[in-house]
Amino acid sequence: MITIVNLVILRVSLFLLKLALFRLTEEKQEQVKTIMGRVKENLESILTVRRTPSPLRLRRACDGDNPFILTGPTEPCFNRCSNNSAICSFFPVPSDHFQRCVECNGDRSNCVEAYSNGPGLEDTDLALYVYGFSMFCGAGTIAYASSCQLEDQYDRPIAGIINFCPSDTDDEEEVFQVAKHEIFHVLGFSDNLYPWYRDENGNPRTRRDANGNPPTDANGDYVADENTVKMVNITDWQTRFGPTNKPVIQLVTPKVVEVGRRHFNCNTLEGVQLEDQGGGGTAGSHWEKRLLNYEAMTGIISENIAFSNFSYALLEDSGWYKVDYSNASILVWGRGDGCGYTAGSCGGYTDSKRRQNQPITPFCDFFTNNESNPQNLSCNIDRTAVAFCNLVDNYLYVASHISIPPEYQYFNSGANFNNSAPRLPFYGGRIHAADFCPYYLDVYSQAPRGICRKGIPLTANNEAAETYGPRSRCVDHSGKWQITNGSNTYTAQYSAGCYEYQCSNSAVIIMILGQSYNCSRAGQVIQVDQTVNGVRYRGGIVCPSCVEICYDDFENCPEAAELYGAPPTDSVGSLLPMVGLLFVAISASFAVNY
Ligand SMILES: *[C@@H]1O[C@H](CO)[C@@H](O)[C@H](O)[C@H]1NC(C)=O
Ligand SMILES: *[C@@H]1O[C@H](CO)[C@@H](O)[C@H](O)[C@H]1NC(C)=O
Ligand SMILES: *[C@@H]1O[C@H](CO)[C@@H](O)[C@H](O)[C@H]1NC(C)=O
Ligand SMILES: *[C@@H]1O[C@H](CO)[C@@H](O)[C@H](O)[C@H]1NC(C)=O
Ligand SMILES: *[C@@H]1O[C@H](CO)[C@@H](O)[C@H](O)[C@H]1NC(C)=O
Ligand SMILES: *[C@@H]1O[C@H](CO)[C@@H](O)[C@H](O)[C@H]1NC(C)=O
Ligand SMILES: *[C@@H]1O[C@H](CO)[C@@H](O)[C@H](O)[C@H]1NC(C)=O
Ligand SMILES: *[C@@H]1O[C@H](CO)[C@@H](O)[C@H](O)[C@H]1NC(C)=O
Ligand SMILES: *[C@@H]1O[C@H](CO)[C@@H](O)[C@H](O)[C@H]1NC(C)=O
Ligand SMILES: [Zn+2]
Q1: CB-CB contact of 589 with 219 (8 Å)
Q2: What are the required cofactors (predicted)?
Q3: Which of 60, 64, 46, 53 has the alpha carbon at shortest distance from 10?
Q4: Which of 36, 103, 156, 162 has the lowest CB atom count within 10 Å?
């Protein structure tokens, strides 16, 4: 029998736990509290779940358990209940949050209650414990997180930890995005959770053994069925030496595939590739950066971040949530690029576009000789930043001077180099996680300069006559501008800049230092000759189409609504039967996600 189960809004309880190792300053603690409050509010407005029994009580581990992640119902401990109020192996939580724990002899005799039920947590579906330790904080790590326990009926994560590292990032928006990213790992985007996913009827996607557990691999780690995570070979992966065979891991669950087919305009897409670089914690628990680039759940966070339909679809495919997609951000990267884009290397894609005389976006092939002083700046793909083509000589950045792996060497020539370049085996994109594919990356070495949303005042040295702030996006110059400052005339380095913009009736208007430039078509060059505060700016800008710059303004750019708006058919809500599965608790392997 199928029963429609009432879904309730996900209710998150937050606990900021201060312990001896706590390393956050008072100021940083305030920021973390505010940010986690925002994350909680955001998730509660997007996700609904099946009601869990109230109050929520966490399982206490038995001695000898590997308490990462605890699954299943309470079982008596056949040795001792752990005298340690820790979850996720070493993160302590208030013992009030635990349920009773019974200790028995191995033969189930002489059972005694070693700990009684704590009061537990009212009105809570997910308990999130927030810490500020410095342990496991690598250079530049802002935060990390993990799920700690799954509930016993459908295996949904009910407890997790997030640890904020004492990093010096104080941009609240950035820390919010990172915190949300981390909590997505806790909610379901994690390789140690895929084996526990449920289908739309609430049945396990991966077959279970008599104890209710998924199968394990040689290391004893649970593995998900091929209907969830699948290894496939890309047989036509083009390199500069010719085609090769590249094995990749794809997530093949239904909503993710639906979103992928629509986004890439590829009806034969069978799955969306997961990251294969970065080792445990990154590989397998993020989208492949070559494919989704600035999507929020890729393994390397960029300045522009989008929690897109891909990541929301993944949460829905876990079977644990219904998702309100209206909060999804638009992902410009890869949109409409076709099956040739998803099923091959960026080298192959670039070659085929070149042969057809078409633009090679989202990639680029302009060699940047000096990363800290890059030339030929352009806009990144969603125009949130001034960017440089990050095709560099990686010899300069890899201490070991080991060349790029052959499968990621794509180029014998590019826009400004040919096969006589001295270190071709090192020529490639700067980002390993993006399979060394080169693309326009924000000029981070000069940040916040170049990051359009940042409200930096540009009084001195404003050689591109830019305006920064939430209403600004990047526009390319038609060449390099000439600046006359008093008696001094020079050529600007910036060949793109951040300007306020608006769209109206599909037309684009760019504002430069208070003057509007009305575009009549995409690609049109409009001359700029303005003198402001004694500085004369002479050059041109290249008009973007409304889809290129107003992709999220459906009202004023109907073309964008057509590309990114709601599809004609909307899927119906799924039916979730009530099934009670019983199985023995076993812990999964340790994994911390970054
Ligand atoms: C738990 O351990 C602590 C210190 O290791 C000890 O003082 C305490 O008595 C123990 N409690 C129980 C119930 O075993
Ligand atoms: C992928 O190719 C490798 C080597 O050619 C082969 O050993 C492997 O079985 C293939 N895997 C799949 C899933 O086809
Ligand atoms: C999603 O919600 C958050 C706040 O809850 C908001 O800041 C953000 O703009 C929303 N994004 C979209 C694309 O609606
Ligand atoms: C790269 O650019 C920086 C900043 O302009 C400059 O200081 C440095 O000398 C340049 N390096 C090389 C190798 O040209
Ligand atoms: C790069 O900039 C130089 C100097 O401004 C210019 O001559 C050249 O055409 C540009 N190359 C490309 C590929 O844009
Ligand atoms: C390759 O580039 C170098 C330097 O830019 C140039 O001198 C040479 O003629 C080029 N060779 C070919 C075969 O195009
Ligand atoms: C113009 O010159 C002044 C004084 O030297 C300097 O402060 C300012 O940054 C210059 N502006 C530009 C756009 O070059
Ligand atoms: C540019 O567009 C704005 C808004 O539509 C309009 O007010 C203005 O007159 C236009 N300017 C020019 C030069 O056409
Ligand atoms: C996300 O998916 C929903 C539901 O299919 C759709 O209405 C919406 O237009 C999509 N958003 C984007 C940005 O693609
Ligand atoms: Zn991550």
Answers
A1: yes
A2: Zn(2+)
A3: 46
A4: 103
| 181 marked ligand binding residue | yes
Nearest alpha carbon to residue 259 among 311, 327, 182 = 311
Give the CA distances from residue 271 to residues 113, 250, 258, 336, 566, in Å, rounded to whole numbers and listed in that order: 48, 5, 9, 16, 21
Residue 518 CB–ligand 8 contact under 6 Å: yes
Determine contact, residues 479/495, Cβ cutoff 8 Å: yes
Q: Is 426 helix (H, G, I), strand (E, B) or coil?
A: helix
Can you read off the two tokens belonging to residue 204? 């396990």
Mean pLDDT split into 10-residue runs, the chain, 594 residues: 55 73 83 94 93 89 76 80 84 90 83 93 92 83 89 93 84 91 95 95 94 90 96 95 96 98 96 89 91 95 91 97 94 95 96 95 94 92 96 89 94 95 94 96 88 81 92 96 94 94 97 96 97 94 98 96 76 35 21 41
**Could you tell me which CATH number the domain at 203-214+222-318+329-446 has?**
3.90.132.10
Q: Does the annotation flag 263 for ligand binding?
A: no
Listing DSSP states for 362-419 in one string gives TB---B-S-TTS-SS-EE-TTSSBEEEE-EEEGGGT-TT-PPPPGGG---S-BTTB-T
Residue 508 CB-half CA count within 13 A: 29
Q: Whose CA is nearest to atom 10 of ligand 9?
A: 566
Residues 414, 418: Cα–Cα separation, whole Å: 6
Domain boundaries along the sequence of the chain: 203-214+222-318+329-446, 472-564
Rounded-to-integer distance, Cα 473 and Cα 449, Å: 13
Sign of the CA dihedral 108, 111, 114, 116? positive
Residues lying with their CB under 5 A of ligand 10, a single-atom ion: 593-594
182 is catalytic: yes
In this prediction, residue 67 carries a pLDDT of 60
Instruction: Work out which ligand 7 atom sits closest to the CA atom of 463.
Output: 13
CA–CA dist 59, 151 (Å, integer): 9
| Closest CA to ligand 6's atom 1 | 418
8 A C-beta contact, residue 392 and residue 430: yes
pTM above 0.85, yes or no: yes
Alpha carbon of 238 to ligand 6 centroid (Å): 24
Q: Which of 40, 35, 43 is nearest to 321 (CA)?
A: 43
